[in-house]
Amino acid sequence: MEHKKHLSRRTFLQQAGLSGIALTIGYYWPATGKGTGEIVLANEGTELMSWISIDAAGKVTLFNHRSEMGQGTWQSIPQIIAEELEVSMDQVSIRYASSNPTKYGPQPQEGSFSIRGWYQQLLRVGASAREMLIEAAARQWQVSTGECYAENGVVVHRGTGKRLSYGALVKDAAQLKPPADVKLKARKDYKIIGKPLHRNDSTVKTNGTAVFGLDKKLAGMLYAVVERNPRFRGKVKSFDDSATRSIKGVKRVFKVQRPVFNIWCEGVAVVADTLWAAMQGRKLLKVQWDDEGFEHLGSEQISARMREDLKKFSSPDSFETDLKHSVATIEAIYEMPYQSHSCMEPLNCTADVKDNSIEIWGPIQEANWIQADLSERFRVPVENVTVNMTFLGGGFGRKAFLDYPCEAALISKEMKAPVQVMWTREDDMTAGPFRQGALYSCKGGVDAQKKIFALQIISATQYASAGEDKHPAPQALKENTGRIDGIIYDYYKTIPHYSFGSVPIKSTIPTMWWRAPGANIDAFACECFIDELAHLASQDPLAFRKAHFAFTRYQALVDKLSEISNWDARRKNDGWGVAITECFGSMVGQVVKVSRRPDQTLKIDKVFALIDCGWYVNPDTIRAQLEGSIIMALGAAVNHATHFEQGKAVERNFNAYPMPRINEIPEIEVHIMENDEAPGGVGEPGLPAFAPALCNAIFDLTGKRLRKLPFRLEDV
User: What is the pLDDT of residue 212?
Assistant: First the structure.
């Protein structure tokens, strides 16, 4: 991101605007070159560069403008700023910044973008504030700034050893013109970045003081639960709330809607003065649904439709000709299931809607989208819509959606009071949207040099939407066109003939993004089929992949993966599988080792995971994210799936949708590539490689190809 070098004082001061700060100045946001806001006087501290506030005692508060759902931004974003600000993490406190796209820029928590999209700007934020503090000290001492330096929250004069704390300097610093350019540290000089520092949110999350969505309480707040149509598109025909209203504390019962893409899904809200009363009242509610006018599909029908839709694709004649010129060819069908997000914390949201203002609190993954959506739907000026993020107990894309805050706001508006809407586990797992299922038709051939000569992967699936009402026409396939998520980019360069495409199926099941969207389903078919081609060519699976990597960065990843897994030491009766995927700017290689127990049941012995995410902030966070991704991928591969009967989700709770238990988790060993590449994502790229690596390991041990997920380990 290019940094603008010429900043006017007017533009700089216009970036102010955080209420509750004694003297606030903002910073020039290089992404747009725009500035808004004004100086705000209050009585807490002085804000420097929007993300930084320092009070007279020298207490530093760093604002995190991204949601924290376990992926580590609560630590990583302040860690970046603190590095150039020259303060230790022990010297700072961290607070959420509410939605303010003018001030903080885009705040979505998706695409593993928080670090890779913002690291340079955040480094400049810290460095610019540091230089302003140094200049303020130099002016007091009447010396040049070159004679001064900052460390541990103080500015020091080299010649005399004089020291001034940031607290003593911040008000003067706030009056200065910001530096037109700042020199950032070399990586070798980092004191904080790249170090495995203790996460600041660990303590509050373990002692129970962390504030999650359901912890928010407001004066006069009511509680609501909603009986939603289990068929997604069905309407409320009528309801009988006579028994519900007999429950002490129940205030109102009324129809409510929530927007799922372009469809309004209906339900009946039960509002009470306690959550218990609302839940008990809901149990007695009787609703008749109008489910006419749309299909009530089951999983078998959806799967059959995918198979029929795949037949609608015709391969390009040129590709079929090239495929025939291969020395050997192979075909396969792979199938992926629908999945629920099933976050540890079910959906919830607190809303307080007044005549010309809206305030939201909750586990919000995408504050800006929700702020803009509520402003438009309720016709309230965007500056009057406040979206406050709490900690999230998992997000995986679901909590970036717009439906549950809108539903809460509609209920609050109807009640003319603040309302907290809680989704039960059953609501959360059955109301959707879901991760889409998919079916893949794969064809490939190898040449005399034992490399891939032709490769085709075509999928039949749903795109993120409320569901398709008709069969969209498939896009025409052409040779050497199309893309598939999760695939290593070098394959596009080194495979002479390829053809990738997809057809959206007709289904009224609502679907949306799920951790590592696209790659979480595509990579399974792709990396398993690459393994089949390696076997067809009688090649070592890891060496086969490396032979197709032209970029030295990919080759280095293969070499390191071989080293850490001791790949060359594997024995004949072992089961070893590998997969290498790429998404959101990072490459991940995983090796899975499996074996047979004495009773002949299958056991996952160990997972070796290697990520190349380039420049990184906290290695402990990276290891935690890869471990979590692998466990989530394990559950999706062998534990659970969402099925449908007559248009309704079958699995309603964890008894039918089991999560991996601690005794089922294999040993996981995570390594990080060290290089000077630009940062990539971390929270999502660790997931796609596991399932194909596991299935490739099972083939290596048993000779059996598993092409459909999920499967039961005990059945292999």
Answer: 96
Is 312-338+434-715 the same fold as 9-207? yes
Phi, psi of 698 (to 5 degrees): -65, -40
Report pTM. 0.91
Q: pLDDT per residue over 556-607, tens digit each?
A: 999 999 999 999 999 888 899 999 999 999 999 999 999 999 999 999 999 9
Beta strand 328-336 with 148-151 is unpaired
DSSP secondary-structure letter at 656?
T
Strand, helix or coil at 190? coil
Task: Reply yes or no on domain 9-207 having CATH 3.30.365.10.
Answer: yes
pLDDT tens for each residue of 314-343: 889 999 999 999 999 999 999 999 999 999
What pLDDT is attached to residue 472?
A: 75
94 DSSP β-pair partners: 62
3-state DSSP call for residue 25? coil
The Cβ of residue 132 has, within 10 Å, a number of other Cβ atoms equal to: 24
Phi-psi region of 467 (alpha: psi -120 to 50; beta: other; left: phi over 0): left
CA 514 – CA 583 distance, rounded (Å): 14
Phi/psi-derived region of residue 486, left when phi > 0, alpha when psi is between -120 and 50, beta in every other case = left
The burial class, CB within 10 Å (0-12 / 13-18 / 19+), for 105 is middle
Number of other residues whose CB lies within 10 A of the CB of residue 146: 9
Indicate the DSSP class of residue 143. Answer: -
Half-sphere exposure in the Cβ direction for 310 (13 Å, CA): 23
C-alpha separations of 621 from 189, 195, 219, 314 in Å: 21, 10, 37, 46
* C-alpha triplet 1, 72, 401: angle, nearest 5°: 80
- Identify whether the C-beta of residue 183 lies closer than 8 Å to the C-beta of residue 58: no
Answer whether 499's CB lies under 8 Å from 316's CB: yes
What CATH number matches the domain at 312-338+434-715, 3.30.750.24, 3.30.365.10, 3.30.300.180, 3.40.50.720? 3.30.365.10
Q: How many Cβ atoms sit within 10 Å of the Cβ of residue 561? A: 25
